[in-house]
Amino acid sequence: NDQDQMTRASRFMYLDWSTGQIVEKSDSRIVAEHDGYHKLGVTHQRTVSFSKNIWRVEDDLLAHSQKGVHRYRLHWLLMDGEWNVESSNQKIEMILKTREGLLNITLHATRNTFPSFSLARAGKLLYGNTPPSPTRGWYSPTYALKIPALSLALEVTAKDTVQFTTEFKSPDS
Question: How deeply is 120 buried, as exposed, middle or buried, from its count of CB atoms within 10 A (0-12, 13-18, 19+)?
């Protein structure tokens, strides 16, 4: 719903800090959650698992009630580079060329139709139909320095729980 996890008090100060906890942990998987969206009736739980050369990230946005409609947004900031995107109603597949080889990224959400999807770089829309803000698609390693990056965003509007799944498949070693 265009809300941050914490309340912004000034340029560099945030209040109402969210807290997180590890729910489950093993050698190849970790599950954690935070209460930053509790005021909206939502808990964000993330599961990260790894096998061979695949990282799988599952973001569960758990609605505590179905009283209101929420706009859920998943955002990934990726290294800048050559890319190719194929999308369907079920999933998005992106290939990103890196120094180590091709990185395959697959995304999907638990909805009947795929969410709104856009890819931006340096404030400009590269793919999709949602105009980005001028601040989207930048990486800032230090204050007063900005470097172009790929900003991938998915949005879903729903009353209930939504799960975004992202898989990052790196080149074989």
Answer: buried
Spell out a b/e string for 11-38, using b for 16 or more CB atoms within 10 Å of the CB, else e. Answer: eeeeeeeeeeeeeeeeeeeebebeebbe
Output the pTM of the full model. 0.86
| Per-residue model confidence as pLDDT tens digits over 41-60 | 889 999 999 998 999 999 99
Residue-wise pLDDT for 75-101, tens only, equals 999 999 999 998 876 789 999 998 888
The amino acid occupying position 95 is: I
Give the per-residue SS3 of the chain: CCCCCCEEEECCEEECCCCEEEEEECCCEEEEEECCCHHHCEEEEEEEEEECCEEEEEEEEEECCCCCCEEEEEEEEECCCCEEEEECCCCEEEEEEECCEEEEEEEEECCCCCCEEEEEECCEEEEECCCCCCCCCEECCCCCCCEECEEEEEEEEECCCEEEEEEEECCCC
